[in-house]
Amino acid sequence: MNGILTSLRLWFAPARVRDEGETPDYRFSLANERTFLAWVRTALALIGGGFAVDQFLPDLRWAWRIGLSLTLLAVGALCSLRAVNHWVRCELAMRRGEDLPVTRFPAVLSLAVGVVALIMVVVVLFGWADR
Amino acid sequence: MTSGPQPVRDPGLQPERTRLAWRRTTLSCTVAAVLAGKQALQGGPSPLGLLAVAASLLVWLAFVALAHRRMRDLSVPRPAVLTARTAWGAVACALLLTVFAVAIVR
């Protein structure tokens, strides 16, 4: 609970990151920035996938199409929020000389993407494409 | 120019790699924005659809401006750390595209 409050405070007053610890080697910060950007691209790809499901599967039953599309969009939004949170936490850990935070998010995300892909295969294969 | 030691080029090319990462992300944002615009015009142009197209164009322009500024800042030997404002700006663009999507999905 305390951890959540701390990270929320950092979200809204991010300048505090610079008050903590020492500035790490600039190359580490750049690596952290590239990781952040890779997560943003993942989020954008999920959001693009949400648009694509809605636009390129018009024969799908309405509920399936909207459901899959909204799921992908929600996962994309979550992924982009998490990208900032992780970037701030890594930057903080590097300044304080602590270990980098470990997280289950990549595992959860890959499971979710796998499940969505499987649902799409099933939906498209089994001719629930009739409206 | 000759005063002080010349900055050593980073053999790992970290600033260059980071600049390229911003470029890739700009491309991803372009694809997402184009899909958003296409979504808005589905089933013929309507006032709301055109408004959504204009909005996603604005979001895309904001992202390009943000990325351009950061790439310019990265073209020095020892670039400063990414500011939280820039990070939030990039994420806000992704979130805004999602909001449009939810608003015009049908």
Strand and helix layout:
The complex is a heterodimer of chains A (131) and B (106).
Chain A: H1 2-12, H2 26-56, H3 62-96, H4 105-125
Helix pairs in contact in A: 2-3, 3-4
Chain B: H1 14-40, H2 47-73, H3 84-104
What does this molecule look like?
The complex is a heterodimer of chains A (131) and B (106). Chain A has one domain. Chain A is mainly α and 131 residues long. Chain A is elongated and about 60 Å long. Chain A has helices at residues 2-12, 26-56, 62-96, 105-125. In chain A, helix 2 (26-56) runs antiparallel to helix 3 and helix 3 packs antiparallel against helix 4 (105-125). With 106 residues, chain B is mostly helical. Chain B has one domain (14-104). Chain B is built from three helices and no strands. Chain B has helices spanning 14-40, 47-73, 84-104. In chain B, helix 1 (14-40) packs parallel to helix 3 (84-104) and helix 2 runs antiparallel to helix 3 (84-104). The termini of chain B are far apart. The interface between A and B is large, with 40 and 39 residues. Chain A: Residues 27-89 form the DUF202 domain. Chain A: Keywords: Cell membrane, Membrane, Transmembrane, Transmembrane helix. Chain A: The chain crosses the membrane at residues 36-56, 62-84, 105-129. Chain A: It is found in: Cell membrane.
